[in-house]
Amino acid sequence: RRLTLGRSAAGRIESRQTVSRIDPTASTSCAESARTQSHSKAASLTAHKSKTKAQMGAGVSGNQGKPSILAGAGRGRAFDAETDAAALRLLEEQKHVFADWSSVRQSLENGAIIQGRDRNILDALVELDARLDLTAYTTTAKRLLQDATNKVNPLEGWTPSVPQGDLLEAHSEEWRAMERVGLREVGACAFVLVAGGLGERLGYDGIKVSLPAESTTGTCYLELYIKTILAFERRSATTQLPLCLMLSKDTEAATRALLKEHNNFGMRADQISFVVQAGVPALSDDKARFVLDHDNILCKPHGHGDVHSLLAQSGLPKKWLDRGLKRVFFFQDTNAFALRTLLPALGSAASRNLDVCSTCVERRAGEAMGALCLLKKDNKSLLKNVEYNQLEPLLLAATGKGDVETPSPYPGNTNQLIISLQGEHGYVATLERTGGNVPEFVNPKFNANRTFKKPARLECMMQDYPQLLQGGSVGFVTLSRKAVREYAPVKNSPASAIDKVKQGLDAHCASSGEADFYALHGDFLRCGRDVVIGGKEPGVYRGLSIEMPPRIVLSPSFALIEDDVISKVKGVTVKQGATLVIEGEGSVELEDVIVEEGSALRISTGEGVVLRVLGLKVANAGYRVEAPGVTKAEVIRGFRIVRRDETHLKFEEPGSYAVAPLDLSSDDEDEDDASRLPLILGAAAVAVLAVLLMR
Contact at 8 Å (CB) between 576 and 547? Predict the structure, then answer.
């Protein structure tokens, strides 16, 4: 009898296959280690001066680059009533933050030294003013807060209409054509990840990018994004694609620690740069009075729109352009689909030569996501993201119906932007002209008597960048997929997710995001020939009903576009409750592979490996979804993945390999009549294979 295992094209047995059990208590998640490194969540600004970061691309949001009009306050400088009128007026408006304002005022005018708590408050105000220009900040805030208090509609007079853009359907020839264009163009892209938030809203106390995108492998979001960018690099033969992370004081230390612990997940250190967002003063009322928190001025995030001003300060976009890069892609921290679906959107943007392209999906009525509208007023027209809380009054005024249609005719904005670096209306020129300061807004929550329920602050949004343009071409592409929506952010706690589902909306929580992840990868695998994906398993986790598809996790190196799957996959079946993981940087082809119900197959390859898996049938105890979770990342999901058994094909050394069927025919039988059975691997096969390979 003959065993045919691991034959290469030359016919030699080259494989060194590992078929193993694994410890169900082992964890590959990077979430817990990063969680322990997370910053204190306190957002109060102390009197200590912020240290300037020395690494390339560092910046602090709102850095106006000029001295504060309050400089020297309480440190011996005498303030003149006429010359320093603006400074004294600013302090007078915030006199409630001082223990004894009359004494402070007198000391300022006399040039006396101020000590203690009031000195600390003055030092904090000096730092804030140098960074923000507090006079401009409070002037804008008072105007916007008065409008909000009086229920002024900021879009009054504008008439909305449905904009026209590209619509791409997954699995269509047009989708595949745009993927091919995107794959050609991605080698000239820079990437900006907005990662300034903690996971408090999710019920998680670490940085969000450390959360597992899925529990099967424990790959966290940051690792997933970096591995995908590295796969883009390899396919486009580009030496280095830059990644910039916008962090905050809350996330900076933990994010740096996560990268250091995992050696940047394989990315070179000089590819990664950082810009750091600082907070802005919280406001207690429509007079824009600051809020004290334990004798410190309470500061809150200014919004992800700061990314543009931070990049303007850093000089990075100009360096990218000088390197020959053409575009920059902006995306947020916990949407695992962001880079998986970039290529068709990039192809669309490049084909139409757009200066700005927003990635959109179909939107549901009442959904908490912005909508792209074509707004017209007098002779002006503007393609603008309209936030969901402004969309309802806008549509009511225009149509009398409000935001009631599902699907909405207005595309849902995913906050993923593709922006051209070059040209008169490109990113570099626009930042040089505007400093990247996008329009601000305020969104206070009111009590019945129109007082604030909690402190407000000025905010700005990344997706409002097109409002800085003077001309240029602005468009969007809507991505559509029948199996699952091309947008699966993880942003809600289990309790909030239940409320969303009751309203007929997506849960957008950790458990639903994981199920959507598997659904997307399963649908991607269906591009192959004769592929069968088993049904979903229903379950209830933290009170939320989740239908879990077969757990399919495909490395970016395995396939970036549908053409890749078409060329690599034939006759694959992954049954209900089964697990298929293809990880690593090698090239893998699958033909006539069956993963039986509840079984698990994991294929790991190193760079330079070319592997064909032929006629493989896997039957083992596999992985199981069990509730409740144990770690904090599992608790917010309501389940954990217990790895009972798996078939693991592991090829690390560069070379060409094949895992072929067993040939159980006798030597004297005709080859044409030989019975060829699939290779069935389970726990019992370990010892047998070890002996055969040694022989």
Answer: no
Neighbouring CB atoms inside 10 A of 517's CB total 26
Interhelix angle 221-236/173-185, nearest 10 degrees? 80
For 468, residues 6+ apart whose C-beta sits below 8 A from its C-beta are: 308, 430, 433, 434, 436, 437, 438
CA angle (439 as vertex; 434, 440 as ends), nearest 5: 135
Q: Let me know if 106 is exposed, middle or buried by CB neighbors in 10 A (0-12, 13-18, 19+).
A: exposed
DSSP state letter for 32: H
Crossing angle (nearest 10°) for helices 173-185 and 342-351: 80
What is the length of the chain?
695
Q: Which run of H or of E encompasses 235?
A: helix 221-236
Q: What is the pLDDT of residue 9?
A: 33
- Tell me what percent of the residues of the chain surpass a pLDDT of 90: 74
Any bridge partners for residue 475, and if so which? 357
Name, in order, each residue with C-beta under 8 angstroms of 143's C-beta and a sequence gap of 6 or more.
Answer: none
DSSP state for residue 613 in the 8-state scheme: E
* Cα–Cα distance measured from residue 588 to residue 201, given in angstroms and rounded to the nearest whole number: 39
First-residue to last-residue Cα distance in the chain: 14
Query: Can you tell me the distance from the alpha carbon of 331 to that of 488, in angstroms, rounded to the nearest whole number?
Result: 13
Before 654, cis peptide (omega within 30)?
A: no
Q: Which of 524, 110, 467 is nearest to 343 (CA)?
A: 524
Omega of the bond leading into 494 within 30 degrees of 0 (cis): no
Residues 85-112 have pLDDT tens digits of 999 999 999 999 999 999 999 999 999 9
Q: Tokens representing 627?
A: 């509730």
CA separation (Å) from 503 to 172, 492, 514?
32, 14, 21
Match 């079984």 to its residue by tokens. 599
**Residue 554, both tokens:** 């495909």
Nearest by Cα to 327 from 190, 230, 476, 192: 190
Tokens of 74: 């309480």
655 strand-pairing partners: 609
Question: pLDDT grade, residue 16 (50/70/90)?
Answer: very low
In angstroms, rounded to a whole number, what is the distance separating the alpha carbons of residues 592 and 608? 24
- Tell me how far apart the alpha carbons of residues 129 and 66 are, in angstroms, rounded to a whole number: 9
Q: Report the pLDDT value the prediction gives residue 389, as an integer from 0 to 100.
A: 82
Are 258 and 34 spatial neighbours (Cβ–Cβ below 8 Å)? yes
Strands 166-169 and 474-480: parallel
Return contacts of 396-402, CB within 8 angstroms, 24+ apart: 397/153, 397/156, 398/159, 398/160
How many DSSP H helices and E strands does the chain contain? Answer: 18, 33
Greatest alpha-carbon pair distance for the chain in Å reads 111
Predicted confidence (pLDDT) per residue in 673-688, tens digit: 444 444 544 433 433 3
